[in-house]
Amino acid sequence: MTILFVEEAQRELVDAISDYEEARAGLGQRFKDELDRRVLWISVHPEVLRLRPGGYRHINLRVFPFYIPYVVRGATLWVLAVAHGSRKPLYWISRRNQVA
Question: What residue numbers bound the domain in which 73 lies?
Fold first, then answer.
């Protein structure tokens, strides 16, 4: 399965890594490593997680307070956001329309 990030999600990822790295050396890399593991898991098991109203699924990171909403279109997993769990719920929902 191909994994793609919408442009805004890619920016959010870079920003979160930078913020964590600024807070403590190495923490940004730990965040990225955890996110990479979770994205890899959903690429292998894309249909396991519950389909939510609005037609998306999401997975929580285990250590960091972020979640990854995604949709599957054909053989492509689209990451819609790298979203903080306690900020602006569903701000990213319109991004579903950006993916084919």
Answer: 2-98
